[in-house]
Amino acid sequence: MAAYSIDLRQKILSAWQNKEGTQRDLAKRFKVSLSFIRDFLRRYRETAEIAPKPQGGDRRSKVKGKDQEFLVLQYLVCQKLSKNPMQSGNYHINLKL
After folding, report:
1. 63-77: string of b/e by CB count within 10 Å (b at 16+)?
2. Which of 3, 21, 48, 72 could lock onto 52 through a cystine, CB 3.0 to 4.6 A?
3. pLDDT tens-digit series, residues 23-81
4. How many CB atoms lie within 10 A of CB 26?
5. With the C-alpha atoms ordered 40, 45, 50, 52, is the resulting torsion angle positive or negative?
6. Type and span of the H or E element at 67
7. Residue 16 to residues 21, 39, 41, 55, 84: CA-CA distances in angstroms?
8. Neighbours of 29 (CB within 10 A)
């Protein structure tokens, strides 16, 4: 979901500052959730910011080195087993960790 516009945020803030209703009233009036109003006004009181917080972020794996190698190997073994679910047998994996 996209962040609410700065224009809408300014209108909500202005209505709140002019005491034009409760937080619940403002949520209904501007067709947003009550939790958005609460979080938005709390953030404004704490930081004086009305811009939306950044969304998303770093999606790269935090796993590195030997742990990453182990996870890749584990994934490949699971793929092999899922292709032959009826195949029985022992899988011996020699890892040099």
Report:
1. eeeeeeeeeeeeeee
2. 3
3. 999 999 999 999 999 999 999 999 999 999 888 777 777 777 777 777 787 888 877 77
4. 21
5. negative
6. helix 65-83
7. 7, 13, 9, 25, 62
8. 14
Closest to 75 (Cα-Cα) out of 24, 44, 37, 83: 83
Residue 29 DSSP one-character state: H
Q: What is the distance of C-alpha 49 from the center of its chain? A: 20
Cα(60)–Cα(81) distance, integer angstroms: 27
Q: How many Å apart are CA 73 and CA 82, to the nearest integer?
A: 14
